[in-house]
Specification:
The structure is a single chain. By secondary structure, this protein is an alpha+beta fold. It has one domain: HIT-like (HIT family, subunit A), CATH 3.30.428.10. The chain is built from three helices and five strands. The chain has a five-stranded antiparallel sheet with strand order 1-2-3-5-4, covered by helices on one side. It is globular, with a radius of gyration of 17 Å. The structure holds guanosine-5'-monophosphate (5GP) and zinc ion.
Amino acid sequence: MSDDCIFCSIVDGEIPARTVYETDDVLAFLDANPLARGHTLVIPKAHAERVGDLDADLARAVFDAVSELTPRVQDAVDADAANVGINDGEAAGQEVPHVHAHVVPRFEGDGGAPIHAVAGKRPDLSDEDLDAIAARISE
Ligand code: 5GP
Ligand code: ZN
C-alpha cells in the first residue's frame, strides 16, 4: 500500500470502483474514463510502480488475470478484438504510478489504431544496430 496512490485506495475500498474480477493478488475494474465500452484495468493489489518491480509470482498472477479476463471483457460488450497494453513509465504515458494492464475492447471500423501506433517516429536501424541491441538485451 502506498499513501496517495489512487489504485491502492481502490484496493483498500477507499475509492469506489466497478470491480469485475478479484483474487488474493489481483484486482480488475472498469476504467473511469474508458477508451471503449468495457475498457478494464488489471492491477496487482500490492503497490508496484513499474512492470520490472513485480516479482515473478505477481507478474504471473497479473498476466493470468489478463488472459482470463480479455475474452470475458470482449464477450460482455460484443467486441471483435481487444488491445492489451501497459504504459510502463511516464515517457510511455503512464499516469497512475501503480502497474496496470489496459484491456481495451475493439470493434470492426471503430477508427482506432493498433499498438504499433503508440511509439513516435520509427528508427532507421542497421543490421549491426539490431545485433547490438539484441546482444545487450540478452546479456
Ligand atoms: P495510464 O495512463 O496510467 O496507463 O492509465 C491510467 C488509467 O486509469 C486511465 O485510463 C484513467 O482513465 C484511469 N483512472 C484514473 N483514475 C481512476 C480512478 O479513480 N478510477 C478508475 N476506475 N480509473 C481511473
Ligand atoms: Zn498503489
